[in-house]
Amino acid sequence: MVAKSxxxxxxxxxxxxxxxxxxxxxxxxxAILTDHPKARILEIGAGTGALTRPLTERxxxxxxxLDVDDESVQFLLRQDWLPEGSVQHGDFLTMPMSDxxxxxxxxxxxxxxxxxxxxxxxxxxxxxxxSTELVGMFxxxxxERVCATHGSxxxxxxxxxxxxxxxxxxxxxxxxxxxxxxPKVNSGVLQLRRRAEWPEDxxxxxxxxxxxxxxxxxxxxxxxxxxxxxxxxxxxDEATLKLRPEQLSPExxxxxxxxxxxx
Length: 263
Hints:
By secondary structure, the chain is of the alpha/beta class.
């Protein structure tokens, strides 16, 4: 039997799992901290409006509900509780910032499709200059990975890059049975809040390049992985080069990037 919510078919290729529990939606929306009157609240993957409704009740016309699924968009456009202009057919991964038409901070929310959740986080980082907050539902292990501390087996590229710029907190776990169709794994709600201070003297692109090179060969020491990534390591502290990437904190990755890019 094809899973449907409010008559909208859940499409496997889009990773759709429609949230059915209003209390979970309310709890997620309540976790958003912003009270900026000009903030743009961008919901990714609005589906049939389980999150859109409480978001709109709280933020009104500040909400823009985005979905790539035309059937979901057409369903939402028929809802009389949505302010005009609050729904848009589009793909967050390809949309330009100019489409948001906002002069305030950006807050991203959503029940994110599992198959593109990492890409959503990388795009959020690309927009970090205006993106102040994210509260969203991910596959539990992805949310845990983002919050992982150095030394952990799950600590990786996203852990480093997110934590350089944002405070990351795992808020709560959501079981499969509150979705239609239910996923095979638990979900986790993640909150990201922009840090008050950033390493302004180090480019994000450089931090990303160093971090990716290090974790591309995570079983090797930094000496070997950075050399393989094309970096000149002359002058880098020997004790650091003997470490594996999961042993470096986000701050240490920033310092390492600073050294590698100012030689």
